[in-house]
Amino acid sequence: MKLILRTPVQQSYLQVWKGFDETLFRRLSPPFPPVRVVRFDGCLKGNTVELELNFFLFKQLWTSKITEQQGNAEEVFFIDEGVKLPFFLSYWRHRHRIIKDGEHTIIADEIEFRTPSVLTDYLFYPLLYGQFLYRKPIYRKVFS
């Protein structure tokens, strides 16, 4: 399944790119499930991000690798792909796009995911959409 959310913000795309750091990453984590950042190397190709999701009765590890990162005069992007995923995901690819929009920027989260079955793909979609919708006001506040 694919999910795309776009958020306009007030800073230049290069300023926004500089702001994609561990502090922002921690702020973007929704309240549930609580997330502990085990490892955050950054957003460059070859970097690793490792998270521990706490579902209170059990915990799940999520490890992603930054498989691509590029930039030009119009946008900067990086892609994280799931290496070790929680049991409810079988595939994860998230393209983070920071797109120049005049003097401002559009942050685009473009996600491809799969769960163990097509039925759970459709059930998981609104949950995942809500998790990423949570990011929009944070992006706007941080990059105002």
Which helices and strands appear, and what pairs or packs with what?
Layout: E1 2-9, H1 13-19, H2 22-28, E2 35-40, E3 48-54, E4 59-71, E5 75-84, E6 91-101, E7 104-114, H3 118-133, H4 135-142
Antiparallel strand pairs: 1-7, 2-3, 3-4, 4-5, 5-6, 6-7
Structure notes:
- By secondary structure, the protein is an alpha+beta fold.
- The chain has one domain (2-142): Alpha-D-Glucose-1,6-Bisphosphate, Chain A, domain 4, CATH 3.30.530.
- The chain is 26% helix and 46% strand.
- The protein has a seven-stranded antiparallel sheet.
- A hairpin with a 7-residue loop joins strand 2 and strand 3.
- The chain is globular, with a radius of gyration of 15 Å.
- The relative contact order is 0.24.
Summarize the structure.
This is Ligand-binding SRPBCC domain-containing protein. It comes from Runella rosea. By secondary structure, the chain is of the alpha+beta class.
Helical residue percent band: 25-40%
Helix- and strand-based class? Answer: alpha+beta
Q: Identify the CATH homologous superfamily.
A: START domain
Strand order of the largest sheet: 1-7-6-5-4-3-2
What is the total tally of β strands? Answer: 7
Which sequence of SSEs, written as H and E, runs from N to C? EHHEEEEEEHH
What's the tally of helices?
4
Amino-to-carboxy terminus distance:
31 Å
Q: How much is the radius of gyration in Å?
A: 15 Å
Q: How much β-strand is present in the residues? A: over 45%
Kindly state the mean pLDDT as a whole number? 96
Sheet with the most strands?
Answer: 7 strands, antiparallel
Under CATH, the topology can be stated as Alpha-D-Glucose-1,6-Bisphosphate, Chain A, domain 4
Given this structure, which CATH class is correct? Alpha Beta
Please mark out the parts with pLDDT under 50 across 5 or more consecutive residues, or reply none.
none
Count of distinct structural domains: 1
Shape: globular
CATH hierarchy: architecture: 2-Layer Sandwich
